[in-house]
Amino acid sequence: MSNGTTMTTINTTVERKTRYRWVVLAVIFLFYLINFADRTNLGVVLPMIKAEFNLSNFEAGSLMSFFFLGYAITQIPGGLFMGKHGTRGMVSFSILGFSIFTYLIGTSANAVMMKWFRLGLGLCEGPSPVGGSATIKNWYPPQEQGTAAGVFMGASSVALMSIPPIAVWIMVNYGWRHVFYWFAIPGIILSIIWYLFVHSRPEESPYCNQAEVDYIRNTSALDIPRRQIGQPQVNQWAGWIRLSAGKK
Predict the structure, then answer these.
(1) How far is CA 122 from CA 52, 166, 230, 235, 246, in A?
(2) What are the two backbone dihedrals, phi and then psi, of residue 206, each rounded to the nearest 5 degrees?
(3) How does it sit in the membrane (predicted)?
(4) Per-residue pLDDT tens for 111-120?
């Protein structure tokens, strides 16, 4: 009777793991979708901007290159910062920053002003891919990281398919400036969502229980037998080398 009671007690204390990491993946997907949308929407409205500001092809191209200049500047420093302080604050700041600069691009009075806003957009977007990749590494066990990375990178393809028709519709009905005004809103909202719900590590999240944390951290041990499979082959080759040396 006591054994049955003990087994019942043990079973009731086994914690069923949460699946909050998949909620995190949904937020990561939206994050990179918005990130990619805010950098590519300029290409859709560029003909209207060229006509309004009387830009040459070279000047129009410089609007694109200023973004990538800022993007390159902050990627490495952003990665170093997140390596020391975690991804939560930096990614939230990055989303808020590139959303604000997206809005400011719509307020540009001339091409020079727009170039500086595009530089600011690039500076804020630079840490984004690093932050997304680091979040995936922290939140998923090795056997799920490929799936998570595929979803993360797939957001860019979804953006390329969906953003042009949306941007064209806004531009035709409200003007090219409203493309940037409208596109800024989702990012501002998502920056708050990221800070509240996507912590740097699952151990820090109140929505991820200990069972899920253990699953994420402990399943890396499953790779050990696969790495050890090659060991007998190494010993076999070492034996052949010693045998050949003895014959000489």
Answers:
(1) 23, 22, 45, 52, 63
(2) -75, -10
(3) Multi-pass membrane protein
(4) 999 999 999 9
Give the tens place of pLDDT for each residue, 180-196: 999 999 999 999 999 99
Residues of the chain with pLDDT under 50: 1, 5-12, 220-243, 245, 247-248
Query: What is the DSSP secondary structure assignment for residue 204, as one 8-state letter?
Result: G
What is the distance between the alpha carbons of residues 33 and 150, in angstroms, rounded to a whole number? 13
Q: What is the pLDDT, as a whole number, of residue 68?
A: 93
DSSP 220: G
H or E segment to which residue 144 belongs: helix 142-174
- Report which of 38, 50, 44, 33 is spatially closest to residue 171, judged by C-alpha positions: 44
Is 101 in a helix, a strand, or coil? helix
Q: Is the dihedral of CA 135, 140, 142, 147 positive or negative?
A: negative
Which residues have a Cβ under 8 Å from the Cβ of 116 and sit 6 or more positions away? Answer: 66
- Dihedral pair phi/psi, residue 145, rounded to 5°: -70, -35
Within 86-141, where are the H helices? Answer: 88-105, 111-125, 127-139
Task: Report which DSSP code applies to 202.
Answer: G
Alpha-carbon distance of 202 to 145, in angstroms, equals 14
